[in-house]
Amino acid sequence: MSPGISLPSPAKLNLFLHIVGRRPDGYHELQTLFQFLEYGDELSFTLTPDQPGVRLASSIPNVPDNDNLVIRAAKALMTLSDKGLPGVTITIDKRLPMGGGLGGGSSNAATTLLGLNHLWNLGLSNDELAGIGLTLGADVPVFVRGHAAFGEGVGEKLTNANPPQDWFVVIKPACNLNTGKIFSEQGLTRNTPRIKIAPAFEGDASRYRNDCEGVVRKLYPEVNQSLEWLSKFGPARLTGTGACIFGRFPTESAARIIWESKPSGVTGFVAKGVNISPLHKKLAELK
Ligand SMILES: C[C@](O)(CO)[C@H](O)COP(=O)(O)OP(=O)(O)OC[C@H]1O[C@@H](n2ccc(N)nc2=O)[C@H](O)[C@@H]1O
Ligand SMILES: Nc1ncnc2c1ncn2[C@@H]1O[C@H](COP(=O)(O)OP(=O)(O)OP(=O)(O)O)[C@@H](O)[C@H]1O
User: Fold this and answer.
1) Residue 111 Cβ < 6 Å to ligand 2
2) Where are the alpha helices (DSSP H) in the chain?
3) Which residue, judged by its Cα, is nearest atom 29 of ligand 1?
4) Which of 50, 65, 94, 139 is catalytic?
5) Which keywords does this Swiss-Prot/TrEMBL entry list (predicted)?
């Protein structure tokens, strides 16, 4: 049996997302609050000393392996090392909807960076891994660092935060949504005044919003309908550029009661918000 490990690749929520400006390269400057969910994909890494290189046990639908963030992250690490590294087969057990604003691809990239740093004994620091992660996507660094955080810039300037670890009902409306398209919409709010990060948010993200919500609601009636339904029970909001939305509840049972009353055909899940990533909890157990 070849040595290997299995690691969680959790989802994130943007508890709020403000667009505060635009950089000369067209990217939007954000202020956001990231929290992890105790729910996500699972990645398994099996070393294959007799077979060099990195490969997926099976492909993800509609994502060529060379574009898969897992392969891109593994290759980025491989090129950094001059050691003869053993090959690895990576299995992705996907639970997170893709293109849902839950950061599944970015989280998979971060789990790969941390998992292979561990398995290959590369000794890279989380700062170094976050730097590599940023070249793969703006949301990768927060998953690498593994602590709930305020994100600024495009989300890479991180300040640790401790929002309440509530329970969430997450709904995936039946539409697929493209981040680039939402950020290029004319009607998008791009001038929300910057807020002072600490301690203004302490414990209460409910007075903040997601600036993408207006255009997403207009373009995707499915998102609008889901938000209308979920907001009957408390504040409900979009995560990232959507399409997923979430409602916050103080207890698991409160969240489950609402989940059980969902209209037929609605998909999603119930999960706890956590300030330390499940990935980092698992890695700490392995040390
Ligand atoms: C929406 C968030 O999930 C919030 O956490 C992230 O900001 C998404 O960041 P990301 O994963 O880097 O997004 P991508 O899917 O690579 O971005 C697709 C496209 O959206 C636009 N984009 C993305 C992020 C950003 N801050 N400003 C942008 O204008 C860019 O045109 C980019 O080419
Ligand atoms: N391992 C992967 N898992 C999911 N998507 C991947 C992966 N590798 C590449 N991708 C590509 O990335 C796109 C975005 O996927 P992801 O699940 O990260 O979306 P998201 O939840 O909207 O992320 P974000 O909140 O960062 O915008 C997918 O549509 C897919 O083409």
Assistant:
1) no
2) 69-80, 104-119, 126-134, 140-145, 179-183, 213-219, 221-230, 252-260, 278-286
3) 27
4) 139
5) ATP-binding, Isoprene biosynthesis, Kinase, Nucleotide-binding, Transferase
Tell me the CA–centroid distance for residue 104 and ligand 2, in Å: 6
Predicted confidence (pLDDT) per residue in 82-102, tens digit? 778 999 999 999 999 998 999
Yes or no: say if 73 and 129 are a contact pair by the CB < 8 Å rule: no
Q: How far apart are the first and last CA of the chain?
A: 21
Question: Is 243 in contact with 175 (CB distance < 8 Å)?
Answer: yes
Rounded-to-integer distance, Cα 210 and Cα 131, Å: 26
ipTM: 0.95
- Fold of the CATH domain 1-287: Ribosomal Protein S5; domain 2 (3.30.230)
**CA-nearest residue, atom 30 of ligand 2:** 63
User: Residue ranges of the domains in the chain?
Assistant: 1-287
Report field, pTM of the whole predicted structure over 0.80: yes
Strands (E), the chain: 4-22, 28-48, 54-56, 87-93, 149-153, 157-160, 167-172, 236-238, 245-249, 267-274
Quote the CA–CA distance of 99 and 196 in Å, as a whole number. Answer: 30
- Per residue in 134-180, pLDDT (tens digit) is 999 999 999 999 999 999 999 889 999 999 999 999 999 999 899 99
